[in-house]
Amino acid sequence: MRGLRERQGVAALLAALSDEQKSYFAFRWPIWARDAQLPTQSDWTNWMLMGGRGAGKTRSGAEWVRALATGDRAFVRKPVGRIALVGETYGDAREVMVEGESGILAVHPMRTRPNWISSRRRIEWDNGAIAQLYSSDDPDALRGPQFGAAWSDELGKWRNVEETWNMLQFGLRLGEFPRQMITTTPRPIALLKKIIADDRTVLSRMSTQENAHALAQGFLERIVGTYANTRLGRQELEGEIIDDRPDALWQRDLLERARIVTSPQLKRVVVAIDPPISGNANSDACGIIVAGLGADDRGYVVRDQTLQAVSPEKWSAIAIALYRHFQADRIVVETNQGGDMAESVLRNCAADIPVRQVKAMRGKWLRAEPVAHLYERGLVSHVGKLPELEDEMCDFGLEGLTSGKSPDRVDALVWALTDLMIDKRPTPRARAL
Q1: What is the pTM of this model?
Q2: Per the count of CB atoms within 10 A, which of 252, 269, 280, 353 is most buried?
Q3: What residues contact residue 410 under an 8 Å CB cut-off, 6+ apart?
Q4: Which domains does the chain have, with CATH numbers?
Q5: pLDDT per residue over 38-86, tens digit each?
């Protein structure tokens, strides 16, 4: 594998070249890439590049797309005319995959940089090759178009992950051998594991530390030093898929078995809030969960609207909007940290909304145990995908923390289901969502 010393030697050699020569070699990706950042020569269909934060995943994807579109003979026999670029959202695809510091535009020399038409969400090269942007928020946009290659970024975070992936596979039907690259920080989701297990997949792993020469020293000291050898660090820095922890109250297979696509008719709905002490950038998230009780007396978790670093006015406005959208019976808000302030903020926005204050008298684990028991008895289902909430649930340990942080989503979930199914104060009113 190319080491840091070897790349430094190449840099020293470049220093002796003319500006024109430097420009040429600076954009020769195979000179600078680590082995894991280059595709193998085998007949693979899926190239999964799984790595930690800052490991060089985006640069690898952008360089691969550039090589395909321009027909770089080190990568492909002839240019690929149609390429799909799929991100979690259109904003992510644009800001990271296209316009980012390591994105597609940045890896081209200025004289050969393709034309980025943001209004049409597409990149056009002079040779006629086109790369089109798509989002996991909009799987149906992939119905109809066809491609010779695709780059999917941060698949582990996609919202409609199964639907988007399936639609993309139907579109990969151009050229002699359609291929796709997946760059992602790992998450223990079923689709990611399925792709890795596919015998047509080549898996490359990269850690943050391997790309240390390209990262700020302060980042390495602060982030790597803080999270090294922790569960979160193994996932976000080492690029490992971390499955359920043995002491967690919830297990993923249990949640998967109980998942449903649409909610049945609900006779009660609550919006539960676990507010932070403050709304600054260093504060905990504001956990906001919408859940209902069905006519079958089972619980249904229908929305995770947790917000990070927002003011009380912002989270209260979101909670009230959810209350009205889902025609909820009341808002349940924990008041341990803010006292009556939390309810006051809500009533300042909408004085007529019924609010129930709840106070935590026991530890997080003890409060959550009865709710986890409801799941074990098959009495709770999640409606659709709730990945961030489920990540917290399956990493909720005995100490009541998730990867060392306050489990704000889990707290709100526990308050919602406790109100609906354990400490019942029913207001019968049937509704369909």
Answers
A1: 0.59
A2: 269
A3: 287, 364, 368, 389, 392, 393, 396, 402
A4: 33-236 (3.40.50.300), 252-422 (3.30.420.240)
A5: 887 778 999 999 887 778 899 999 999 999 999 988 888 899 999 999 9
